[in-house]
Amino acid sequence: MAVLLKYLLVLILIFYLFSKVAKFLFRIFLGRTAKAAQERQYQQNNKGRKSKDGINIDHIPNQNGKRTGGNFKGGEYVDYEEL
């Protein structure tokens, strides 16, 4: 009986330690992966465009000067009738 109790106690202790070590290693791996993904995203977002002079260009406005939605002057009037 005592041998079985010792066996179960050792087995539970091994399982407990394994779960703690696995959780620790998973957090380290997940942290490294998340940091690498953030760095890739930052590099993609900050690529920007470069002109001939080597100047970074973040935004190029419309070349024809027309704005969509802002130049709407209205439509024709539609008469409303109640039925």
Task: Describe the model.
With 83 residues, the chain is mostly helical. The protein has one helix at 2-45, and strands spanning 49-50, 56-57. The protein has a domain at 2-44. Helices cover 53% and strands 5% of the residues. The chain has a two-stranded antiparallel ribbon with strand order 1-2. The chain is built from 1 helix and 2 strands; from the N terminus they run H-E-E.
The helix/strand series, from N terminus to C terminus, equals: HEE
In terms of DSSP E residues, the strand content is under 5%
Structural category: mainly alpha
Outline type? elongated
Largest sheet: 2 strands, antiparallel
Helical element count?
A: 1
- The share of residues in helices is 40-55%
In terms of per-residue confidence, which ranges show pLDDT below 50 for 5 or more consecutive residues? none
Overall mean pLDDT stands at: 79
Terminus-to-terminus distance: 93 Å
Main sheet: which strands, in order across?
1-2
Compute the gyration radius: what is it? 33 Å
Number of strands: 2
Primary descriptors:
single chain, 83 residues, two-stranded antiparallel ribbon, 1 helix, mainly alpha, elongated
Gist?
It is built from 1 helix and 2 strands. The protein has 83 residues and is mainly alpha-helical.
Summarize the SSE layout with pairings.
Layout: H1 2-45, E1 49-50, E2 56-57
